[in-house]
Amino acid sequence: xxxxxxxxxxxxxxxxxxxxxxxxxxxxxxxxxxxxxxxxxxxxxxxxxxxxxxxxxxxxxxxxxxxxxxxxxxxxxxxxxxxxxxxxxxxxxxxxxxxxxxxxxxxxxxxxxxxxxxxxxxxxxxxxxxxxxxxxxxxxxxxxxxxxxxxxxxxxxxxxxxxxxxxxxxxxxxxxxxxxxxxxxxxxxxxxxxxxxxxxxxxxxxxxxxxxxxxxxxxxxxxxxxxxxxxxxxxxxxxxxxxxxxxxxxxxxxxxxxxxxxxxxxxxxxxxxxxxxxxxxxxxxxxxxxxxxxxxxxxxxxxxxxxxxxxxxxxxxxxxxxxxxxxxxxxxxxxxxxxxxxxxxxxxxxx
Length: 351
What we know:
Blueprint: E1 2-4, H1 11-15, E2 36-37, E3 41-49, H2 53-70, E4 75-83, H3 85-93, E5 100-102, H4 106-114, H5 127-130, E6 133-142, E7 162-165, H6 171-187, H7 192-204, E8 209-210, H8 213-221, E9 228-232, H9 233-243, E10 248-251, E11 256-260, E12 263-265, H10 267-273, H11 276-284, H12 289-297, E13 301-302, H13 305-310, E14 317-321, H14 323-327, H15 330-338, H16 343-348
Parallel strand pairs: 3-4, 3-5, 7-8, 7-9, 11-14
Antiparallel strand pairs: 1-14, 2-3, 5-12, 6-9, 6-10, 6-11, 6-13
Helix pairs in contact: 2-12, 3-4, 6-7
GO molecular function, one term: molecular carrier activity
Pfam families: SBP_bac_11
Keywords: Periplasm, Signal, Transport
């Protein structure tokens, strides 16, 4: 399947999450409760994965301006909680009063559906399986690529140090693990044993698994640890092209995994607060042309084909696979690969 490839962050970027009120809690804990007063002063909380903070920092003002223009006299503020996608989902499951969740894998929202917090069939409530933009996994290497990293198999070489997020708690890390595994299956004509051998060698070259995608970026770019960072393409592009020009390069693997970033309303929260309409409007606006343009400008692949066409130069063709087509649905993926004692744990034990 062909797809299109669509962030040393300063302290300000690490903490700026919302135009109105910032709630940057790595695990989503202790995020301020949402309140709504007589329909005129509305506060929404968006629980999101950590690498999405730059997008929502700019998206929130777009939505607020649009919504307030259509609802004169209404004041809207949006708070953000960022962390590893699965940690965020668990925080919401444990009581974090998020009106909406914007994650990087569907299993995190499925968890909330199973607990009765998100409506059944949430993926059909919005277009494109409720994922307004997509991405994939790429490599960020240091200038001139000193270790000559070209593809997943190069990550298994002796002397290569890799930085990734923890696949047990982070969607970013899971996509990295599955990307390597999928490549291994293709390279060995479906030989599971040989594919696992490749992945085990890659994990052996990964001394530490960071808490989330942004923590992994900070370790690689600011702490100068590692030879290669495996991360979402929007993160790699934003670092190399907008924040640290000339210091890093992006390597696109020959075969890599596609990633959707699904969104949903947390019905149990909005029903209690009476914020159903604005929460849904907040998510629906992600498909608007201004929001799709913003996504493209931050190297997220927009769903709008006209917007994508206008930014085609930023999105080289990639040969990708979806995790569902390669490994089955996310329920199976989580049980088989990332549950305690699963394949990830088995291969990590070989380090």
